[in-house]
């Protein structure tokens, strides 16, 4: 019996799973640096399960960046993929490539209640878009529309590359330091792993602190240990995340709720819940009333991108029946 396979491919890791009966099976995480291309990584994954190319008839891969044409170049690792060559070499009948945050958005449709933490209370409006925002290697933004009955649709976009919003005189001062260090400042330049370190450098330069921390992990660990400067960095990171998430709600009419995903924020959940996120999320001047009752959740699910790739593939296969 042929199987389906799904993948969620990031800059450092590629996550693969079999998709059967609307569920993930045999999830494995492989380092992208260990393989020259995605085909070789999939062959290694299948081999580990005792399967050969040809055992899988359909594949959905969630990839960072715009997806179109026969050749796809991964934006955050060294891999590239030709759809035609991929299907030929792996004996695959169907290959679906989707934007990684389209997959992440679709993954929100399969969340269990224990896989999310409420950040802002509210009631999601079923007929309105939901917004998915995720700081990680970069900053991903996705939009979810539709319903289980009519089918879910995720709108791809590059919302992580919008300009970083400024909401206070303090943020204006920090923005000037960020610009001095980095030039043009996108939201992703701050709301990402590397961005956390850039923000730390800017804050230290502005306030005259000695820079002793060398990595995002150092900053997170110091903040959790009670370091005042690192704590200010985390709080400002969360505050800017709130502004960006709120801007997306206004732009998209996203009263279906907001999901905060990605690998960074769950590492400091308690600090996030105490941070300025909720205040800055709702701080929209005359439009602040619009933000009342828009729920926000922090997603703690382990593989939402893989699950979303499975949802996308399932919907495609059902349409073809």
CATH class of the largest domain: Alpha Beta
CATH architecture of the largest domain: 3-Layer(aba) Sandwich
The general outline is: globular
Largest sheet: 6 strands, mixed
In terms of structural class, how would the helical and strand content be classed? alpha/beta
Kindly report the spatial arrangement of strands forming the biggest sheet: 8-13-12-9-10-11
Helix content: 25-40%
CATH fold-type name of the largest domain:
Hexokinase, domain 1
Tell me the total number of β-strands: 13
Tell me the series of helices and strands, N- to C-terminal: EEEHEEEHEHEEEEHHHHHEHHEH
As residue ranges, the low-confidence spans are none
> What proportion strand?
15-25%
What's the Cα radius of gyration?
20 Å
What average pLDDT do the residues reach? Answer: 93
Topology:
Blueprint: E1 3-9, E2 13-20, E3 23-31, H1 38-48, E4 56-63, E5 71-73, E6 80-82, H2 83-90, E7 94-99, H3 100-107, E8 116-120, E9 130-135, E10 139-147, E11 151-155, H4 169-182, H5 187-190, H6 193-207, H7 216-224, H8 228-252, E12 258-260, H9 269-274, H10 277-282, E13 296-299, H11 304-320
Helix pairs in contact: 3-11, 4-6, 6-8, 7-8
């Amino acid at each position: 019996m042929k199987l389906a396979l799904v993948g969620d491919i990031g800059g450092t890791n590629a996550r693969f799973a079999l998709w059967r009966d609307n569920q993930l099976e045999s999830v494995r995480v492989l380092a992208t640096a260990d393989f020259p291309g995605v085909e070789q990584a999939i062959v290694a994954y299948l081999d580990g399960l005792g399967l050969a190319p040809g055992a899988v008839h359909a594949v959905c891969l969630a990839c960072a960046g715009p997806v179109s044409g026969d050749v796809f170049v991964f934006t955050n690792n060294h891999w590239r993929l030709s759809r035609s060559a991929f299907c030929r070499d792996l004996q695959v009948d169907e290959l679906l490539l989707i934007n990684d945050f389209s997959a992440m958005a679709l993954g929100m449709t399969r969340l269990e209640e224990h896989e999310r933490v409420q950040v802002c209370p509210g009631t999601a409006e079923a007929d309105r878009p939901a917004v998915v925002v995720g700081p990680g290697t970069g900053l991903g933004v996705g939009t979810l529309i539709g319903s289980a009955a009519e089918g879910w649709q995720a709108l791809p976009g590059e919302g992580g590359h919008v300009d970083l919003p400024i909401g206070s005189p303090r943020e204006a001062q920090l923005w000037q330091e960020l610009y001095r260090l980095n030039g043009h400042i996108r939201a992703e330049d701050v709301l990402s792993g590397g961005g956390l370190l850039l923000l730390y450098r800017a804050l230290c330069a502005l306030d005259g602190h000695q820079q002793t921390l060398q990595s995002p992990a150092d900053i997170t660990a110091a903040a959790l240990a009670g370091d005042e400067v690192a704590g200010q960095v985390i709080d400002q990171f969360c505050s800017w995340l709130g502004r960006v998430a709120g801007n997306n709600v206004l732009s998209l009419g996203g009263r279906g709720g907001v999901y905060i995903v990605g690998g960074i924020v769950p590492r400091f959940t308690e600090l996030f819940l105490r941070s300025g996120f909720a205040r800055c999320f709702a701080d929209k001047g005359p439009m602040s009333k619009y933000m009342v009752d828009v729920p926000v959740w922090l997603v703690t699910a382990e593989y939402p991108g893989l699950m979303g790739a499975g949802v996308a593939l399932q919907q495609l296969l059902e349409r073809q029946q």
